[in-house]
């Protein structure tokens, strides 16, 4: 028993040495981890900006001097004259070319209570123009209505008479619903990282070793193939886990730089969330590495291994999105690797209590599949076919 | 002791049955302890296939191979534990140093602690690898690579050695070092089986020579006996004659 352990230790130690000394492959593998927080921060910034601020709209006024009060009202709504435009945005707004023409008799007509016509000119088919136009439209209507209401009130008429029917809109989207999108993306990203980080190590230690002719020597040693496979799995899964941990740590740090309260998001990566995610993702790391080793050992060359194994990376990206599309998803999806984890992660990010039974179930199924892959790979390594591929 | 008994092995091409290769066709021989046994044979005679069957990498269609009485197919791990292998194709872990590689293989053979350390130091000294020991093996010359691989095979002092063309690419000095090494192990009663294409080497080193042709035993005996059998004075001439003649010279 002790000798068995000594062998496994030597095998694992050697795999670690090789993996960690291949600096370039390691950097590429962990690139994902470094990119994640940047992506999260940039995306949340963009989303927050979209949701909270009304970005300034620049339009070309003619006759602005005739209606100073209207101008103030518009600028209160962040609709600004072209003169104020920062140099960087000039090109865009010049192209959109929204013009508002105010007639010279504006003040006079206003005083006399005559209808006034303001002309808005723009290319209405242009999508980029639609939002500014809508905002100008409602700003002008607001302005017009407020004056109209005042006039009626002066004449002693209840302004409510003007609105016999009111449409009350209730947005059922929770304040942080948009943010769930981001956190779901983080979930997909975490699983992709589990698949990608260990990828190069898995290929290198299987197809790579065969191509470098070191596998035959190893297979001639008094070591069971199961131990060989286990050692390679442990090494690849460790790198993959490092990738996942890095993403979690870096993201939880960088999320601090974004003010999420603006969108009412309750998203936080506290210690307990991180630990839960790690428990959830550890089986995925093992599963991913086992699947990659399995495919890489099957393929005929290093090149072939690279292309087949790369396809596997697509799985964690596609499955969660496919599940989002599904209206009635079958029950068994809750148990399967990747789909099960992605459902639980969704709950975690939503702030719903984690269903530990589901965690246990999906982890169990994932580990069982991993074990099956390892055992069948160990068996395959004993067969002649793998040896035949040597020469 | 290594024993090969009536080995048959065919490589079947599933798509084209005509391409089926009969690599071994009833090969039998014995390599005794305390002797150096050489396998000679033209390219494609089945030498490497035979040796791979011996490591347990291939399984024979018929017949069996034993190492110290253990059938390779039945308990490959126990059989390999008594075996030091220098394979046909070998590579090095280029990100490890020579010392780490040898250490790795020593550990795989269950060596630990001080015993292991001493064994590694000894084999490094024996094969004159001291200067290379703590360098990463990337960039090693062919001969240096061979030496490291040899060190891996010898470090655990196995009872049986199987070496597939161990002297290709070695310079004269290293070849001599290897020969001396093998002679020392022979004196200690180890069993050494090696294949080669260098006749002088075989003639100088081997106690017994096995000549394989077309997957069969063509002849066996001491170099002297083989020469007499073929009626030649040089082993090379005898070899050419023996593999060329189909009529059973087989002893």
Automatic annotation (TrEMBL), chain A:
This protein's record includes keyword Membrane: yes
Highest taxon above the source species: Bacteria
Pfam families documented for this protein: ABC2_membrane_3 (PF12698)
Membrane topology value: Multi-pass membrane protein
Ranges where the ABC-2 type transporter transmembrane domain occurs: 30-375
Subcellular location as annotated: Membrane
Main location, first listed in the record: membrane
InterPro entries registered for this protein in UniProt: ABC2_TM
Transmembrane region(s): 25-48, 179-203, 233-257, 269-297, 309-326, 356-378
Keywords noted in UniProt: Membrane, Transmembrane, Transmembrane helix
Name listed for the protein in its UniProt record: ABC transporter permease
UniProtKB/TrEMBL annotation, chain B:
Lineage, broadest ranks: Bacteria, Pseudomonadati, Pseudomonadota, Gammaproteobacteria, Alteromonadales
InterPro entries: AAA+_ATPase, ABC_transporter-like_ATP-bd, ABC_transporter-like_CS, ABC_transporter_ATP-binding
TM segment ranges: none
The ABC transporter domain, residue ranges: 2-239
Family statement: Belongs to the ABC transporter superfamily.
Molecular function GO terms recorded: ATP binding
Record keywords, A-Z: ATP-binding, Nodulation, Nucleotide-binding, Transport
Protein name, per record: ATP-binding cassette domain-containing protein
């Amino acid at each position: 028993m002790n000798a068995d352990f000594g062998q496994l230790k030597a095998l694992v130690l050697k795999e670690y040495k090789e993996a960690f000394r291949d600096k370039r492959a390691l950097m590429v593998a962990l690139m994902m981890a470094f990119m994640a927080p940047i992506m999260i921060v940039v995306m949340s910034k963009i989303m927050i900006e979209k949701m909270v601020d009304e970005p300034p709209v620049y339009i070309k006024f003619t006759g602005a001097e005739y209606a100073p009060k209207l101008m103030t009202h518009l600028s209160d709504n962040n609709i600004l004259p072209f003169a104020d435009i920062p140099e960087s945005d000039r090109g865009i707004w010049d192209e959109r070319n929204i013009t508002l023409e105010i007639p010279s008799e504006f003040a006079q007509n206003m005083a006399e209570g005559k209808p006034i016509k303001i002309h808005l000119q723009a290319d209405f088919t242009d999508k980029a123009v639609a939002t500014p136009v809508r905002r100008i439209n409602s700003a002008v209507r607001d302005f017009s209505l407020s004056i109209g209401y005042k006039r009626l009130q002066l004449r002693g008429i209840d302004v409510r008479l003007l609105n016999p029917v009111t449409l009350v809109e209730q947005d059922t989207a929770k304040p942080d619903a948009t943010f769930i999108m981001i956190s779901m993306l983080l979930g997909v990203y975490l699983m992709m990282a589990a698949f990608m980080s260990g990828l190069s190590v898995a290929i290198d230690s299987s197809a790579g070793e065969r191509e470098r002719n070191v596998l035959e020597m190893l297979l001639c040693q008094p070591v069971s193939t199961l131990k060989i496979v286990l050692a390679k799995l442990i090494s690849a899964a460790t790198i993959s886990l490092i990738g996942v941990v890095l993403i979690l740590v870096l993201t939880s740090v960088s999320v601090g730089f974004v003010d999420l309260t603006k969108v009412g998001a309750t998203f936080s990566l506290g210690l307990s969330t991180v630990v839960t995610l790690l428990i959830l993702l550890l089986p995925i790391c093992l599963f991913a590495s086992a699947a990659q080793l399995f495919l890489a050992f099957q393929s005929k060359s290093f090149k072939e291994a690279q292309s087949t194994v790369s396809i596997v990376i697509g799985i964690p990206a596609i499955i969660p999105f496919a599940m989002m599309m599904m209206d009635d998803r079958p029950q068994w999806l809750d148990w399967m690797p990747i789909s099960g984890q992605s459902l639980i992660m969704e709950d975690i990010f939503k702030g719903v209590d984690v269903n530990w039974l589901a965690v246990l179930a999906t982890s169990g199924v994932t580990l069982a599949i991993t074990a099956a892959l390892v055992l069948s790979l160990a068996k395959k390594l004993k067969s002649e076919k793998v040896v035949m591929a040597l020469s | 002791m290594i024993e090969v008994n009536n080995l048959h092995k065919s490589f079947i091409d599933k798509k084209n049955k005509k391409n089926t290769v009969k690599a071994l066709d009833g090969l039998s021989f014995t390599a005794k302890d305390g002797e150096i046994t050489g396998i000679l044979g033209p390219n494609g005679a089945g030498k490497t296939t035979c040796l791979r069957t011996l490591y347990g990498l291939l399984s024979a269609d018929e017949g069996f191979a034993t190492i110290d009485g253990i059938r390779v197919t039945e308990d490959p791990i126990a059989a390999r534990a008594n075996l030091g292998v220098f394979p046909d194709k070998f590579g090095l872990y280029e990100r490890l140093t020579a010392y780490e590689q040898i250490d790795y293989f020593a550990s795989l053979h269950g060596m630990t602690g001080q015993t292991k350390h001493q064994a590694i130091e000894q084999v490094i000294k024996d094969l004159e690898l001291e200067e290379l020991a703590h360098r990463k093996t990337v960039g090693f010359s062919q001969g240096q690579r061979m030496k490291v691989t040899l060190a891996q095979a010898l470090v655990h002092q196995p009872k049986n050695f199987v070496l597939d063309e161990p002297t290709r690419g070695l310079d004269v000095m290293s070849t001599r070092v290897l020969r001396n090494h093998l002679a020392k192990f022979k004196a200690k009663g180890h069993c050494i089986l090696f294949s080669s294409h260098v006749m002088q080497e075989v003639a100088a080193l081997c106690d017994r020579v096995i000549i394989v042709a077309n997957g069969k035993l063509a002849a066996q005996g001491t170099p002297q006996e083989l020469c007499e059998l073929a009626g030649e004075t040089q082993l090379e001439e005898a070899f050419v004659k023996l593999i060329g003649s189909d009529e059973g010279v087989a002893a």
